[in-house]
Here is the input.
Amino acid sequence: MNGILLTQNSTFIIGQVAWLLGKIMEGIFEVLNMIGIPNIGLAIILFTIVVNLLMMPLTIKQQKFSKLSAKMNPEIQAIQAKYKNRKDQDAQLAQNQEIQAVYAKYGVSPTGSCLYMLIQMPILFALYRVIYAIPAYVGRVKEAFFPLVDNIIDTAGATELVQNLSNSAMYSKQFTNSGFVAGTHSEYVQNTIIDCLNKASTADFASISEKFPSLAADVTNTVSKLEEYNNFLGLNIGNSPSYVLKEAWANGAWLLVIGAIAIPVLSALTQWINVKLMPQQDTSSNNGNDQAAAMASSMKTMNMIMPLMSAWFCFTLPSGLGLYWVAGSVVRSIQQIVINKHIDKMNFDDIIKKNSAKSAKKLEKMKEQQEKMNAYASMNTKNLQKKANISSKTDNSEVSADSYSEVKEAKPGSMMSKANMVRDYNEKNSRK
Here is the structure.
């Protein structure tokens, strides 16, 4: 079956993460329903808090890494400046060795930042998918669309109307699916219609009732149930702030006007505060590094533009997404204050000393192993030569082969086996 059933993401990794996060979201909503407040807005806030708390250890590790990297960068830049005009192989090898030694000193991996990003990105994309398509992951919300969906399918022309609703264009690929066109896959047809209705505004539902009076009662029941779920402080988070603002302004509902404006404004403000609380890169140590300075400037510009872009997106998309962004920024800001205090209490000089001692111990151990391997290789070579000399007095070819076989037959993974590898490497290079 082509397409995505009820917008559940099927992308590798992201789809699996979204499914898991969807289970958390569904559990939160069911708990709220049990205590009599089945509210999607409140569920989004609690969901955001839970997910950010689960990600907090990773966030701390990432910022600890950033702090150590900031202390380490001047030394890396000094090494790069030292070999700036030397492009020969020996110089490049020496540069890499010195840089690796600095990484080991600070206990930092060159790919550390990429690793944290690779872990976080699927989670962030999955979070967006769950919030964007709540009926796909919360069964009780999906059930609210029935029996309206089944009656739309059974009513001639109603399905075509749903396809032409204001936000239905994003599901155009699902409309061309063979199962949808033929109507042979009932679940797919149902899910596609729910996709459209989930993005429908109050005006869209009104148009369905107007053109198909037989569906009016089902539309009323569905809208009533969705409003119960979507009502957050008097605002229907299923509608976009732009739609709410237009309707509220026309009806003189000034509290709704304020509420519609508040979400985009709060989204921009909270994101700006969140950016300010994040550890800022120290540009004073660029030492004329034009590339580093350009990246720092680009990041500064991005930090200024993103809050404005957030406000615009919140204004045009369903208010539920805006609420998620606001809640996320507030939670991350509070979380960042706690993390900053935790990071500030860390003695990074002690951490660097421990990493340096650990690195030195590791290098010493590697040196000892190398010396042992060289010693075994030397002994094996001498034994081989001795046996070869003896064999030359009798049957040179036969005895030499047997003697070599005795030395070479060593247990895989043993020190003797590793020594044989070193010996073979040395013999090979000596023939060149």
In short: Residues 203 and 387 are 96 Å apart (CA to CA). Confidence is low (pLDDT under 50) at residues 1-5, 396-407. Residues 144-232 form one domain.
